[in-house]
């Protein structure tokens, strides 16, 4: 598959079901185990839902960035990410690549496009994200792309099923940051 034809656009409400399906496939259940981003060993339950997608799309300076490829039968959703402005910095989250296509360069392209939007369109010089603290391989993925470990952590929202049902009691979010 050639990534030269990869296109990007902001999600609309009409994309809700496709975004939820992609995010769930990348993070939960057996389909997520095909890729390396799965959280299935850490969390059960949902990763996102239509309510969360709708809330993101309704806020100013929030976007769900879609990466699509048209294979001749219409655009196919390959990846997505939530980008926003939060606390004076860009925010990057809900990053999902079709598990069967991970490790093919799509994720790097999505991350670069999200950084470009935050830097050029939103005029924000910093991107920030949170990663589950025990996901060392994922943290290292971002470190290789210029993100720094800040030493700051946020508590995991235990008891709030909207964020999943934890299988361990030692989860938190590590804050990573990059100057754009």
From TrEMBL:
Keywords: Transferase
Gene3D superfamilies: 3.40.630.30
Residues in the signal sequence: none
GO molecular function, one term: acyltransferase activity, transferring groups other than amino-acyl groups
Protein known as: Acetyltransferase (GNAT) family
Lineage: Bacteria, Pseudomonadati, Pseudomonadota, Gammaproteobacteria, Lysobacterales
């Amino acid at each position: 598959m050639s990534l030269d034809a990869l296109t990007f656009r902001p999600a609309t409400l009409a994309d809700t079901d496709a975004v939820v399906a992609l995010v769930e496939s990348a993070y939960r259940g057996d389909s997520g185990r095909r890729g390396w981003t799965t959280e299935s060993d850490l969390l059960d339950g949902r990763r996102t839902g239509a309510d969360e997608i709708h809330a993101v799309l309704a806020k100013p300076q929030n976007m769900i960035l879609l990466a699509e490829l048209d294979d001749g039968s219409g655009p196919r959703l390959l990846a997505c990410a939530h980008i926003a402005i939060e606390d004076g910095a860009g925010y990057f989250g809900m990053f999902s690549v079709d598990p069967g296509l991970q490790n093919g360069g799509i994720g790097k392209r999505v991350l670069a496009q999200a950084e470009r939007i935050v830097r050029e369109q939103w005029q924000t010089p910093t991107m920030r994200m949170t990663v589950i603290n025990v996901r060392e391989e994922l943290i290292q993925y971002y470190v290789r792309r210029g993100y720094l470990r800040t030493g700051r952590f946020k508590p995991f929202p235990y008891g709030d099923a909207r964020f999943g049902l934890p299988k361990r009691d030692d989860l938190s979010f590590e804050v990573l940051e990059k100057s754009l």
